[in-house]
Design goal:
Elements: H1 3-17, H2 24-33, H3 40-47, H4 51-61, H5 75-82, H6 84-101, H7 111-131, H8 137-146, H9 149-157, H10 159-172, H11 176-183, H12 188-198, H13 203-211, H14 222-237, H15 253-259, H16 266-285
Helix pairs in contact: 1-12, 2-3, 2-6, 3-5, 4-6, 5-6, 6-8, 7-8, 7-14, 7-16, 8-13, 9-10, 9-12, 10-11, 12-13, 13-14, 14-15
């Protein structure tokens, strides 16, 4: 990496140090989940003390994402049904979204469209994971929502650079990923990795955020990165939100091979993404 590019990356690192920290409740929840002696009642006691987190959790657990036949009305019930890790991941995600949605700076880009794209990608990842019989669906959901978090950092903390990136995207009709490399010397995926490290996100989610454009570089988490990679492409094809450009990235050959999907399932997957998107979007952002 050239000295100038390294200097710019160091500037990003300093900016990230100024980002808001996660809510104390979420940090406490993470501690409890990591403690093998924690009971469902212990975890529920912390969650219910935060009315906002409680409301978000119950909205999500009763959404079409899980499709439980009966309404879940208590936090303890949600914890028993979903498990500790799922609860932590879902509350972590909604808290991170809230951190950035509270920022009122003008960025020259419709941030709501980026949220829609991220939520659509999360829905797509969940659906693809279901086809693959992937066990920890909520991890894919979290990774889908957070895969473009580096773009939000650029919008809010490097507004001049981001404006230049958007200008190049529009002028040359290229992927935002390519414009970032031209302007910054690195991409939103690199920034997302730094942010994931700062917030001590699970290694799997960090790897997916960092490698969703190049899944074969995700080492032991290539399958997960490939799922987000395909979900991103399908959401762009469906025109759900915006990833910052008007192009569809090429499908990574190695990613497609590791997924082992039949091409015939792509159309029904896309139909399911469209069907579920509205319900999930309301549950996450309400």
């Amino acid at each position: 990496m050239k000295k100038m590019e390294q200097a710019k990356l160091n500037r990003i690192i300093r900016k990230i140090e100024d980002l808001p920290t996660l809510p104390r409740t979420v940090l406490r929840i993470t501690e409890l989940v990591n403690n093998p002696r924690t009971s469902a009642q212990d975890l529920a006691g912390v969650v219910v003390d935060d009315q906002v987190l409680t409301a978000r959790l119950l909205r999500l657990v009763n959404s079409s994402f899980y499709g439980f036949p009966r309404k879940v009305s208590t936090v303890t019930g949600a914890i028993v049904l979903l498990g500790f890790d799922a609860i932590r991941n879902l509350l972590l995600t909604t808290s991170i979204l809230e951190l950035f949605s509270n920022k009122k700076r003008k960025t020259g880009f419709n941030r709501e469209k980026l949220w829609d794209h991220s939520i659509g990608c999360a829905v797509g990842a969940k659906i693809i994971g279901s086809y693959l019989k992937y066990e920890r669906i909520e991890e894919l959901f979290v990774s889908g929502i957070l895969h473009d978090i580096g773009k939000i950092v650029e919008m809010l903390f490097l507004p001049e650079d981001f404006a230049q990136i958007v200008s190049i995207v529009e002028k040359d009709n290229i992927l935002l990923f390519s414009a970032e490399e031209r302007v910054l010397g690195y991409t939103h995926a690199d920034i997302g990795r730094l942010l994931a490290q700062r917030w001590s996100l699970p290694a799997k989610i960090e790897a997916v955020i960092a490698n969703h454009h190049q899944p074969d570089a995700a080492d032991g988490f290539m399958l997960e990165a490939a799922i987000i990679h395909l979900a991103d492409i399908l959401c762009r094809a469906l025109d759900i939100g915006s990833g910052g450009d008007n192009r569809i990235p090429p499908l990574n050959k190695n990613a497609w091979e590791v997924l082992e999907l039949n091409i015939s399932v792509i159309e029904p997957i896309m139909h399911e993404i469209e069907t579920e998107f509205d319900s999930i979007n309301l549950s996450i952002t309400a």
